[in-house]
Write a structure and sequence with these properties.
Arc Repressor Mutant, subunit A, elongated, 12 helices, mainly alpha, three-stranded antiparallel β-sheet, about 240 residues, two-stranded antiparallel sheet
Length: about 240
């Protein structure tokens, strides 16, 4: 006696057919993936749309969302991330040690301690004067700043309205790319640490209610420590720092 097994279409099968991607959409996703894979720098949605001959940036963003979902499902070691206002394929942070060993021979991309300190000050204080940077570090930073400019991490963004019109320094788009940032507000503690030095000095110099009360009573106000990062007349001339 033969037993017949009847196979019926389930709801899951019908749902999978209903949500099957359109061939044109699949082609768009593959095209966007190929562009991102071959790019050596972040690309804006508009640039990707223009290269892929798409209508607008909405298909680009949908494709990137789909790609990241796929990468997460299969446990891929990379994602499409937003950096410096554009999109780029980037490995996950947990693989940084492995990739660091891979690129250990590329010493030209490494920064010295002096360069890292100078770059951090400019990033948080920009637009920053060279005198401000040197005041915080306590050493001359001319050669270090020049080296950062050669690496395209720092640039001249203007001149200050002061005697001599000294140059103001800020970071570049390359800085965002190197450190994996989309914008400067993504820096740790950016809101607190990026307060301009002039505003900090002004707030520090403002008299408190206790100072006013002491002045009215004829008592000398307590001496306040000098603001860190500002020049004092009795401060020695900064030593030369030639490390870049």
């Amino acid at each position: 006696m033969l037993n017949y097994v009847y196979v019926t279409e389930t709801d899951t099968d019908r749902q999978s057919e209903a949500f099957e991607p359109d061939p044109a959409e699949m082609e768009t996703i593959a095209t966007v993936e190929a562009i991102l894979f071959g790019a050596d720098k972040p690309l804006s949605p508009g640039s990707i749309s223009r290269i892929a001959a798409l209508e607008g940036v909405r298909p680009v963003r949908r494709a990137i969302e789909t790609l990241n979902s796929r990468y997460e499902e299969v446990g891929a070691s990379f994602r499409v991330v937003q950096i410096a206002g554009g999109y780029q394929m980037q490995s996950l942070p947990e693989y940084s040690d492995v990739l660091g060993r891979l690129h250990s021979s590329r010493s030209d991309s490494r920064l010295s301690q002096a360069a890292m300190e100078t770059l951090a000050i400019i990033a948080y204080r920009q637009p920053a004067l060279r005198a401000d940077v040197e005041a915080i570090r306590g050493v001359s930073c001319g050669e270090v700043i020049r080296g950062l400019m050669e690496k395209n991490l720092v640039r001249i963004v203007g001149r200050a309205d002061e005697i001599g019109r000294p140059m103001l320094y800020g970071t570049t788009r390359r800085f965002l790319e190197v450190f994996g940032l989309n914008r400067l507000d993504d820096l740790p503690n950016a809101e607190r640490l990026r307060q301009p030095m002039a505003q900090v000095a002004e707030d520090d110099a403002a008299p408190t209610e206790a100072d006013v009360a002491q002045a009215d009573a004829g008592e000398p106000a307590e001496s306040q420590p000098a603001l860190e990062g500002t020049w004092q007349s009795d401060r020695p001339t900064p030593a030369a720092d030639q490390t870049a």
